[in-house]
Amino acid sequence: MTIEPDRDAAFLQAAITQAREGLAEGGIPIGSVLVCDGRIIGRGHNRRVQSGSVVLHAEMDALENAGRQPAAVYRRCTLYTTLSPCPMCSGAILLYGIPRVVIGENQSFRGDEALLLERGVNVMVVDDDDCVSLMREFTVRSPELWHEDIGVET
């Protein structure tokens, strides 16, 4: 399952667009897209604030928006996400057998990358400047909301 770097960059940019949409809606700027056979089948961004949800992280939103898929589809997918996936989202990646995850950045938060790698998922961290600056600016401006999202007591 090899995708050219230009395509990875384009799909990561689609995830960044989702992150910016979430921020514009008053939410947390994390975005994700699910890609199968070179085509985006699901887009999402963190909607916890907008929906009053406890589970609508960007990756979960992208999976939800992809709709029900046969297991064979998930096993041909790459999930692009602007931030390292948390334990919940990593669990969904493993549950559905998504074999490849491209992460925009993991400086702001390092999720369960080790678990994904241990279970055979191809994980690529890009350290994208846009992803880093989106989260850096957000965490400075809204630390309480950020801590709530990642389950940190303040």
What does this structure look like?
With about 150 residues, the protein is of the alpha/beta class. Helix content is about 50%, strand content about 15%. A five-stranded mixed beta sheet has the order 2-1-3-4-5. Helix 7 (about 130-140) packs across helix 8 (about 145-150).
Short summary:
The chain is 48% helix and 17% strand. By secondary structure, the chain is an alpha/beta fold. Helix 7 (129-141) crosses helix 8 (143-150).
Could you tell me the strand content as a percent range? 15-25%
In DSSP terms (H or I, runs of 4 or more residues), the helix count works out at 8
Task: Count all strands and give the number.
Answer: 5
SS-based class: alpha/beta
State Rg. 14 Å
Order of helices and strands: HEEHHHEHEHEHH
Distance between the termini: 42 Å
The largest sheet is: 5 strands, mixed
Low-confidence parts lasting 5 or more residues at pLDDT below 50?
none
**Any idea what the shape is?**
globular
Question: Helix share of residues?
Answer: 40-55%
Mean pLDDT level: 94
Order of adjacent strands in the largest pleated sheet: 2-1-3-4-5
